[in-house]
Every structure is written in C-alpha cells, then in structure tokens.
Amino acid sequence: MSISPRKLNTFLMFKLPAAYLCGVRTTSLSDKTCTVSVKHRWINQNPFGSMFWAVQGMAAELTTGALMMSKIRNSGYKISMLVANNNASFTKKATGRIMFSCHQGHLIDEAIQQAIQTGEGQTVWLNAKGVNSDDIQVSDFNFEWTIKLKQ
Description:
alpha+beta; single chain; Thiol Ester Dehydrase, Chain A
C-alpha cells in the first residue's frame, strides 16, 4: 500500500494532533518531492504576528519524513528511521500560506541502498525550504535522518 497525501493527513490527525490542529497538511508526494502547506492562523501564531517557529518545524520535518517513510515502504525492507539532528534559519516573517518542500528523494534512495548493501546504519541530511505565497523564502530547515536495517 502506497503512502498518499490523504493518508498522511489522516495519520497526522490521529498520531500528531498538534500538527493537524495547527493546520499542517501534505499537499503532494512523489518519488522525488514532498510538499506540505500550513497557513498562518490564530492557533499557530507567535506574539510577534507571524507563524510560531515550531509549527514551521513540524511542516518542514513532515516534508522530509514523509518522503523517507514512502521510500522505506517502497524498498520492501524493514528499516527504522530517526531524526538525529536539525538546524534552521528564518529570513522573513511567516504570514499567509507557507509551502514547505523537500526535493531530495534521490539522497534517500542512495542511503537506503547503502544500508541494505552494508547492513550498517546510514545518515542523510535533507533540506526543506518554506516559501510564502509571493515565492519568498521565509525559513530553511535541515534534518539529519538516521536509518538502519531492522534485524
């Protein structure tokens, strides 16, 4: 069974309700790219009139994590995944609808192949950029994912 945006959004509602209530939604998922949307609203705002950084982080992590989950499922192997590290930079106030995208499916493919061939854990850094409706970047997130073949 493949992972779809609709299934991911249902997963959010039951397993990550804070993200769901804040408006984080997967809009597209392909072999190479995942896009997640979140709109600045009262429930996800900070005291300075923009989107709280943690809400942006949830949306950004979902782009990389959904792509990772999809790739693992398609591999046919049982592989564990975990965020080991992350960093972020914020360049503009996040207001309106913010779209986060990760376009690095190929890096996940390489890490999974390496994990399968060697049997050793692998790490991969994935990037998710957040842009507003004017296509101006508001934030840039990096997540270091670790994967390991389950025994």
